[in-house]
Amino acid sequence: MSKAEIITSFKIPFVILLGICASLAFSFFHFPLAAAAILLAVTALGSYDLYKEIIVSIFQRKFALDYIAVLAVSVSIATQEYLVASVIALMVSSGKTLEEYGASQAELSLSQLADRIPREVVLWKNNGPADKEKIGNVEVGQEIFARKGEVLGLDGILASQEALIDESSLTGEPYPVEKIKGDLLRSGTINVGEPLVLKALKTEKDSIYEKIIQMVRKAQQEKAPLVRLADRYSIIFTILTLAIALFAYVISRDFKQVLAVLVIATPCPLLLATPIALLGGVNASAKKRIIVKKLASLEALSRISAIIFDKTGTITLGKPSIKDFKNLSQKQDTELLAIAESIERNSMHPLAKSIVSFAKEHQAPLVQASSVQEHIGSGISGIVQGIPYVLKKMEGGEGMAIGLYETQNLLAVFRFEDELKQESKEIISTLKNQGLDLHIFTGDKREAAEKLVAELGERVHIQAECTPEDKQKGIQALKEAGKVTAMVGDGINDAPALALADVGMVFSNEEQTAASEAADIVFLGGDFSLVIEAIRLAKRSVGIALQSIWVGIGASVVGMILAAFGYIPPVAGALIQEGIDVVVILNALRASR
After folding, report:
1. CA-wise closest residue to 411 among 356, 351, 334, 330
2. Does the pLDDT value for residue 142 go beyond 90?
3. Distance CA 314, CA 460 (A)
């Protein structure tokens, strides 16, 4: 919501408040009919949307807590308490305005994510910069010009001879990456070198960075289980309200006391505060480079009982070093390394980065690969100097090994070793102390996996030599045992398990992989501590939402009981309920911090 929209949304409450003041002035000068007419007018203005929503809910056969508000307005008019009716209308309209404002605050960081991408780009034509064009109008194949320091708005291929790119917005890595002509460039990254020319591979709506934004926007549109839980509370609350109102009538035979009870229950803070708290959790997570794709994920993550980890890139550094390189062909080592590097340079997978670094260390020449494609759970392929090559995981042997193939011929083998992240032992211990059941599913040999568990020094269940299907079966078994599961992975082959788990969390540097699509929560970068941070934020957001529910219910019930015994008149009750709503909304906004 923009500042202009916020100001506009406050107009109706402001007009109602002016109307109330005007009616009080007319009453003071003994013009009761004019005062009543003004109050009825502002009541109609403030409650029009309320009645419309109630009618729609009746036709849709959905329960709505606003039934109490409608009943309160109707009783107010029937008993000629026009001032009370107008105050209720003021409460309803201002409550909705506060809710919209709270939601806009919760969405602030998401707007900041979107604002990083330029809305216009400079086209490159006839070997020079041309006119500016809206980024949404750029078509695949068009070339755009990016100056030093500019954020790349589209995914594409580098048309310039070389470039220096900051990919930290996607990977978390602080070091610029060297690119040569033909390499892939990703939207959301920054050109930190000389001006470059990029040939668009995708339109704006299909770009990697736009997908990140859409993940978060989708979460905003989803009604989470906790909100539905609030709806269930509201049914109980409505029944309780009607019971207290009936009690007030029985002991007093005075509809004004009934009205006071109804006013204090209107509108209920349940429906105002819980969406704001959950959206606040999405906002707070985004600030920590944690993209929550579904609001429901926060509620589920707050009550997980088992957490499953892939090994590489989560518990380990995800930057495995090459401990052995074996040339099985007649080609020179540097030639093979150049071929492998040209293909893997276009991937963000940890093993790919190791091969690129290894090739540079051995001074392999830079060559260009074309038609590069990553294959889920298998490897990566590309064409170098007209010949197709594939790099893929090798079966058998000890540890992790990648083979370089020309069609079916094995040309070279890369063997890797990875190191435990410095913080992994402490994080695993923290999770264990939280009472979570910890599991590691890995494709490594059992010997290597057991060595890892010994280094961690904690009781962690391990399944070694896992295929993607094995990981999925393992999670299914845990769910059948009654566990609420969270899967933490980092790669494409984790996609089936991530999709099956109650909460899928992925360390993904390539936001278009199957892993990111299957996961509910995406960590930008490889910081293992983000797992604990995500759980903490989920529990905090859900806790604040529940706190808002119970504070609102408790305060309203106390007020209704006092009103039933005649201690609170209708107008005072309306003001008290407005205060309750403001308190719980402000409390819910804490989730954004």
Report:
1. 330
2. yes
3. 15
Could you tell me the end-to-end alpha-carbon distance of the chain, in angstroms, rounded to an integer? 18
What does the alpha-carbon distance between residue 171 and residue 524 come to, in Å, rounded to a whole number?
6
Angstrom distance (rounded) from CA 380 to CA 395 = 16
Residue 348: strand, helix, or coil: coil
Query: Are 563 and 261 a contacting pair, CB within 8 Å?
Result: yes
CB 268 within 8 A of CB 552: yes
Q: What does the buried/exposed string (b/e) look like for 236-249 if buried means 16 or more CB atoms within 10 Å of the residue's CB?
A: ebbeebbebbebbe
Residue 135 contacts residue 154 (beta carbons within 8 Å): yes
As a whole number of angstroms, the distance between CA 425 and CA 447 comes to 19
Q: Cα separation of 494 and 517, whole Å?
A: 11
Is residue 397 predicted with pLDDT exceeding 60? no
Residue-range domains of the chain with CATH:
3-108+215-279+539-592 (no CATH), 114-214 (2.70.150.10), 290-317+420-526 (3.40.50.1000), 321-417 (3.40.1110.10)
Name the pTM for this structure: 0.62
Tokens in use for 212?
């990140």
